[in-house]
C-alpha cells in the first residue's frame, strides 16, 4: 500500500447552484428545486437535495426530471452570481494554502501539507474551512481528507451533505477494497457497467485484474485503474492556470467501423464533455474530433463557430458532422475524443449563455 506525507483536502459545495438560489429566496427552501431548463425542454444544470430524493440529477432532461418530481420548481440560472460566490469561497482557501486547484465553480483540491495557518491536522483545517464557508456565504460544503487527490475526491462524497470524511494511509486499502467501482472517480457509467458484466463490483474485485489485462481492455486508462485501486496517486495539486481546452475521450475495447455504432459511442463522450463544460461554466468556439485507428494512425478534425458551444444539441450536431465527413471508415477505430477550445478571453466580457434556460 502506497503512503505519502502529503495532506490533501477536496472541498465540494453541496448542490451549489440550487443552494445559492434557496439561500437567496426563502420561498424555495426545503423544496425540490433545479437550476436550468424548464418543464418542457432543456437539461438540469443542478438539483437541490430535496429534488435528488426523487431521482432528479444534473444533466437530466427537464421533461424526465418533471416526470420524476411533478412538484419540481425550475429556476433560471444566474452564473455571474455563482461565480461571485465561488470567488468568496476561493479567498477562504487561499487563507490556508496557495496550492489550490479548482475543478469547477463548486469544488477544488487543496494541498495543506504546509498550511499558512490553522492546526497541523488536515482534518481540523478542513473543519475550519467548512465553518468559514458557512459563516461567509451561508452555504454548506463537504470535505474529503487523505494523502492523495483520488482518495480525497472520493471521501468528500461519503458524508454529503455538510459532511467530512477522512481516509488515512493505514485505512486506504480496506476502504478501497469495499468501494463500489461505480464510485471510483475516473470510472464512468459505461466502464462500470462493463466491469460489472465481468463480475467486478468492488475494489477488491478490480484489484484481481493484472496491469496487462486492464491495459488490454481500457488502454492507458487501465494504468490509472490499476494504480488507484491500490491507493497510488502521485498527481500534484496544481494551482489554477488559464484554461486552454476541455475534452473527453474513450478508448474502445474493440475496433469499430460502422458509422452508426461510432455515433452511438461518441454520444457517451459528448455527455461527459457536456458535464465538464457545464461544471466549469466555460464554453469555447472550436470543437475538435480526434480519431485513432486500429493501426494507431491518428487524425483530428475541427470546426470553429462564430458563437460558443452553449447548447448541447449544437455540440451534438457538430460532432456528428465532423465524424460523418470521415465516413466510410476503411480501418477500425479504437479511440474517439472531443475537445472544446478557443474560449473567449476573460477581458472580452461575459459569455452569453443559451443553455436552454
Automatic annotation (TrEMBL):
SUPFAM superfamilies: DNA/RNA polymerases (SSF56672), Lesion bypass DNA polymerase (Y-family), little finger domain (SSF100879). The active site is at residue 107. GO terms for molecular function: damaged DNA binding; DNA-directed DNA polymerase activity; magnesium ion binding. One of its GO terms (biological process) is DNA repair. Its EC number is 2.7.7.7. It catalyses: DNA(n) + a 2'-deoxyribonucleoside 5'-triphosphate = DNA(n+1) + diphosphate. PROSITE patterns: UMUC (PS50173). It is found in: Cytoplasm. Residues 252-279 form a coiled coil. CDD domains: PolY_Pol_IV_kappa (cd03586). Mg(2+) binds at residues 12, 106. One of its GO terms (cellular component) is cytosol. Residues 8-188 form the UmuC domain. It is an enzyme of class 2 (transferase). Keywords: Coiled coil, Cytoplasm, DNA damage, DNA repair, DNA replication, DNA-binding, DNA-directed DNA polymerase, Magnesium, Metal-binding, Mutator protein, Nucleotidyltransferase, Transferase. The keyword Cytoplasm applies. HAMAP family: DNApol_IV. Belongs to the DNA polymerase type-Y family. Poorly processive, error-prone DNA polymerase involved in untargeted mutagenesis. Copies undamaged DNA at stalled replication forks, which arise in vivo from mismatched or misaligned primer ends. These misaligned primers can be extended by PolIV. Exhibits no 3'-5' exonuclease (proofreading) activity. May be involved in translesional synthesis, in conjunction with the beta clamp from PolIII. Monomer. This is DNA polymerase IV. It comes from Gaoshiqia sediminis. The gene is dinB.
Amino acid at each position: 500500500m502506497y503512503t505519502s506525507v502529503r495532506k490533501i483536502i477536496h472541498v465540494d459545495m453541496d448542490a451549489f447552484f440550487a443552494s445559492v438560489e434557496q439561500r437567496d429566496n426563502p420561498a424555495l427552501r426545503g423544496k425540490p428545486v433545479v437550476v436550468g431548463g424548464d418543464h418542457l425542454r432543456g437539461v438540469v444544470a443542478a438539483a437541490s437535495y430535496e429534488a435528488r430524493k426523487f431521482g432528479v440529477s444534473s444533466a437530466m432532461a427537464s421533461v424526465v426530471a418533471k416526470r420524476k418530481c411533478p412538484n419540481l420548481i425550475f429556476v433560471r440560472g444566474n452564473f455571474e452570481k455563482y461565480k461571485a460566490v465561488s470567488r468568496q469561497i476561493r479567498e477562504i482557501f487561499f487563507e490556508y494554502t496557495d496550492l489550490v486547484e479548482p475543478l469547477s465553480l463548486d469544488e477544488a483540491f487543496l494541498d495543506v501539507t504546509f498550511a499558512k495557518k490553522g492546526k497541523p491536522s488536515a482534518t481540523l483545517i478542513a473543519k475550519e474551512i467548512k465553518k468559514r464557508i458557512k459563516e461567509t456565504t451561508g452555504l454548506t460544503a463537504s470535505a474529503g481528507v487523505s494523502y492523495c487527490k483520488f482518495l480525497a475526491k472520493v471521501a468528500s462524497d461519503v458524508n454529503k451533505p455538510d459532511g467530512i470524511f477522512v481516509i488515512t494511509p493505514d485505512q486506504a486499502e480496506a476502504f478501497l477494497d469495499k468501494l463500489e467501482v461505480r464510485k471510483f472517480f475516473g470510472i464512468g457509467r459505461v466502464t462500470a457497467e462493463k466491469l460489472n458484466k465481468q463480475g467486478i463490483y468492488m475494489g477488491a474485485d478490480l484489484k484481481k485484474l493484472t496491469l496487462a489485462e486492464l491495459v488490454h481492455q481500457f488502454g492507458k486508462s487501465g494504468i490509472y485503474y490499476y494504480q488507484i485501486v491500490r491507493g497510488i496517486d502521485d498527481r500534484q495539486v496544481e494551482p489554477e492556470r488559464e484554461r486552454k481546452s476541455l475534452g473527453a475521450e474513450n478508448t474502445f475495447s474493440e475496433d469499430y467501423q460502422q458509422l452508426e455504432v461510432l455515433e452511438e459511442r461518441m454520444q457517451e463522450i459528448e455527455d461527459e464533455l457536456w458535464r465538464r463544460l457545464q461544471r466549469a461554466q466555460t464554453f469555447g468556439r472550436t470543437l475538435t474530433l480526434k480519431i485513432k485507428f486500429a493501426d494507431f494512425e491518428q487524425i483530428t478534425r475541427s470546426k470553429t463557430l462564430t458563437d460558443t458551444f452553449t447548447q448541447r444539441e449544437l455540440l451534438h450536431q457538430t460532432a456528428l458532422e465532423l465524424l460523418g465527413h470521415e465516413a466510410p471508415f476503411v480501418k477500425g477505430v479504437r479511440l474517439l475524443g472531443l475537445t472544446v477550445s478557443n474560449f473567449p478571453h476573460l477581458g472580452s466580457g461575459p459569455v452569453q449563455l443559451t443553455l436552454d434556460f
